Amino acid sequence: MSFHVVTGAGPTGTATALRLAEAGERVRLVTRRGTGPAHPGIERIAADATDADALTALVEGAASLVNCAAPPYHRWIGEFPPLAAGLLTAAERTGAGYVMLGNVYGYGPVDGPLTEDLPAAPTSRKGTLRAALWADALAAHRAGRARVTEVRASDFLGRGATSLFAFMVVPAVLAGEPVDYPADLDAPHSWSYLGDVAATLVAAALGEAAWGRAWHVPSTSEASTREVARRLAAAAGAPEPLLTAMPPAELARSGDAVLAEVEEMGYLYDRPLRLDSTRTEELLGVTATPFEAVVEETVAAPRAV
């Protein structure tokens, strides 16, 4: 049994902490308010991860530091750098393997499958930020100051998923209401199940193959937005979904600060997005949860509240 620190108790951090604890590992879950799931293997601690000294004390002796924390989406640019600096500093000081939860923003627009070895070519502020955070961590790894890795996911599905689709489409489809969505509704799109994200983070933290490179979460499906909506409606016994494509610029006029931040990421939704996870499946041994099970969980989640 080893000891791990997980920062952030949102859906992914909670799933990751529980998966580690249920595997017999000891977990220290760090959040600003000390929140998180009740489990005998999980110690919940209230602390600010931007405070490198405080975080270092909490990480001392840990085998890994897994970050699932992030600032509110519309405050990424100002608040993510100090968070990332605190995490990397704690990893450098303690020797804990640093596992970052990332996404595909840093690749920029790509025609064809996304692989982990593609160069960073961001065209957005948030993509530039994500690429810079990984570059800083990788530089520390190559200099021998830390062991780092990044697990990259696409749009989330599952219980508690926080994604544009989960926010805009899922509730409307389950309620039988029409919805406008800023995407090519029929383009293939990789979807990341929260449980598979947690499984990939844990595999990276527990293995020795992960350090110094990035990994893609295996996709539960590459179905289009329209097809996913249809599958959700069918599972819920809801009417055939009525989806309409909307220009991403309309989000900026919505008056919602978070939705307004999505406009620059429109390229992720106006073309096929396929995440190649061959490396993860072959070297980390993680495979995707069947799409049918993810659909059933997503449909059941609102009803379980």
Q: How would you characterize the overall build of this protein?
A:
This protein has a domain at 3-154 and 192-218 and 276-288: Rossmann fold (3-Layer(aba) Sandwich). The chain has helices spanning 11-22, 52-59, 76-94, 125-142, 164-168, 170-174, 194-206, 225-236, 249-252, 257-260, 278-284, 291-303; strands at residues 3-7, 26-31, 42-46, 64-67, 97-103, 148-153, 155-157, 179-181, 191-193, 214-216, 243-245. With 305 residues, the chain is an alpha/beta fold. It is built from 12 helices and 11 strands. Strands 3-2-1-4-5-6-10 form a 7-stranded parallel sheet, with helices on both faces. InterPro entries: Epimerase_deHydtase (IPR001509), NAD(P)-bd_dom_sf (IPR036291). This is NAD-dependent epimerase/dehydratase family protein. Residues 5-205 form the NAD-dependent epimerase/dehydratase domain. Pfam families: Epimerase.
Fold topology:
Elements: E1 3-7, H1 11-22, E2 26-31, E3 42-46, H2 52-59, E4 64-67, H3 76-94, E5 97-103, H4 125-142, E6 148-153, E7 155-157, H5 164-168, H6 170-174, E8 179-181, E9 191-193, H7 194-206, E10 214-216, H8 225-236, E11 243-245, H9 249-252, H10 257-260, H11 278-284, H12 291-303
Parallel strand pairs: 1-2, 1-4, 2-3, 4-5, 5-6, 6-10, 7-9, 8-11
Helix pairs in contact: 1-7, 2-3, 3-4, 8-12
Pfam families: Epimerase
Protein name: NAD-dependent epimerase/dehydratase family protein
Domain NAD-dependent epimerase/dehydratase: 5-205
